[in-house]
Amino acid sequence: MAYRPTARTEARRAEVRDRIVRAAFELIRRGGYREASVAAVAAGAGVATGTVYRHFPSKAELFAEVFRVASQHEVDAVAEAMAAPASVSDRIALGVETFARRALRGRRLAWALLAEPVDPAVEEERLVFRRAYAEVFASSLREGVLDGSLPPQDPDVTAVALVGAIGEVLTQPHSSDEQALVASLVRFCLRSITEESDVHRHAA
Any idea of the CA torsion for 15, 19, 25, 31, to the nearest 10 degrees? Predict the structure, then answer.
């Protein structure tokens, strides 16, 4: 008769897996992927190195899972901020500000999520992460274009451009203080979605 894990066994396995992911996240948050060796993750989770590999056959798979969990948390925070009862432009501003302030509060984690060189498996998750961020902005942009509060534009293209610009700004060194940097970034993003231009002349 084949062995069937009990509910208690499955719960224990899930708890150990969660500890491993949380331990890896803390190491990455503090020092990036380079600091998250399998031995360090195992020590942080209170398990043997072999246990880590039983749950994650490779370090790349572990990092991809950590990235997936951490990035979803960040996307959810921006989406929650943009769910406020406000105009489309104000919601976009809230989203940009939330994105920026969270990244500036956790610069090492922001670098890990946005720009640190990573294994291809993690890079795939990064692309998913960026698309998820873009979709949050695109949803509000579509609403603004439809109700006329924003000038005609392709919401999907604009959203991808916004996320790219925000990520680039937040991963570069700046002399401005945090408040000025966030304000400047919000102004830039609002100008990019609200100012009309002669598209045909510039595209020619």
Answer: -170
Q: How confident is the model over 70-85, as pLDDT tens digits? A: 999 999 999 999 999 9
Burial of 195 (0-12, 13-18, 19+ CB in 10 A): exposed
For 129, list phi and psi in degrees, rounded to 5: -60, -45
Other residues' Cβ atoms within 10 Å of the Cβ of residue 125: 22
In this structure, how many other beta carbons lie within 10 angstroms of the beta carbon of residue 173?
4
In the chain, count H helices and then E strands. 10, 0
pTM for this prediction: 0.85
User: What is the CATH class of 1-57?
Assistant: mainly alpha
pLDDT at 156 over 50: yes
Computed on alpha carbons and rounded to an integer, the radius of gyration of the chain in Å comes to 21
Q: What angle do CA 168, 63, 126 make, to 5 degrees?
A: 30
pLDDT tens-digit profile of 129-142? Answer: 999 999 999 999 99
Domain residue ranges in the chain: 1-57, 63-203
Instruction: Name the CATH architecture for the domain at 63-203.
Output: Orthogonal Bundle (1.10)
Q: Do domains 1-57 and 63-203 have the same CATH topology?
A: no
* pLDDT-derived band at 10, boundaries 50, 70, 90: confident
